[in-house]
Amino acid sequence: MDIKISPSILGANFCNLEKDIKTLEEGGIKAIHIDVMDGNFVPNIAFGPDQIKMLRKISNTLEFDVHLMVANPEIFIDSLVEAGADTITVHVETCTHLYKTIHTIKSFGIKAGIALNPATPIETVKHVREMVNKVLVMTVEPGFGGQAFIPGMKEKIRELNELKLSNGLDLEIQVDGGINLENISNVIELGCTDIVVGSAMFENGDVCETLRQFNSKIS
């Protein structure tokens, strides 16, 4: 099973963002996770199409995994694709017409994902499971980095992996929130294949060494 780490640049040092991104790329990272927040769906504001377009100038090869934590995701899709997004993940809680939103994202020839807040049940995936490339299980309440992993999400990840295997689904199970060197092995055992790491990747200031330690956990 191929496991990938997708560092969340929300946890990076914004004064050294270009340096951190290049360090990650040189260390073998293939994708970075970019949170777009509107201060409405979540009580925080971060990134937008203009900032993502600037980040794309830093790297033409990294996959830009864009996570929309916004109240009206449909209005951002066109501009995010133009800015350089390779994957757009939307929250099921914000999409009145989820099927249509997923279809719109995929019409641009990029990947589509759906995200579930901690209290949102796996059943919401059922009728779009064949359409999406990934399902993101939020293991903290979305909006802020540095939160602790919610233990009850382990069962949720397990349920999603059982749904994937029993239906022969070709999708990534992504997890985001409170992932660190102590628990990453556990979420992989539960079935996660795409691990978003934020604060734990950047907090000690030595991104190169921390990335080496995380890579040792997935090799």
TrEMBL record:
Keyword annotations from UniProtKB, A to Z: Carbohydrate metabolism, Isomerase, Metal-binding
The protein's name in its UniProt record: Ribulose-phosphate 3-epimerase
EC class: isomerase
Species for this entry: Clostridium zeae
Known function: Catalyzes the reversible epimerization of D-ribulose 5-phosphate to D-xylulose 5-phosphate.
Catalytic activities: D-ribulose 5-phosphate = D-xylulose 5-phosphate
InterPro entries: Aldolase_TIM (IPR013785), Ribul_P_3_epim (IPR026019), Ribul_P_3_epim-like (IPR000056), RibuloseP-bd_barrel (IPR011060)
Superkingdom of this protein's organism: Bacteria
One Pfam family named in its UniProt record: Ribul_P_3_epim
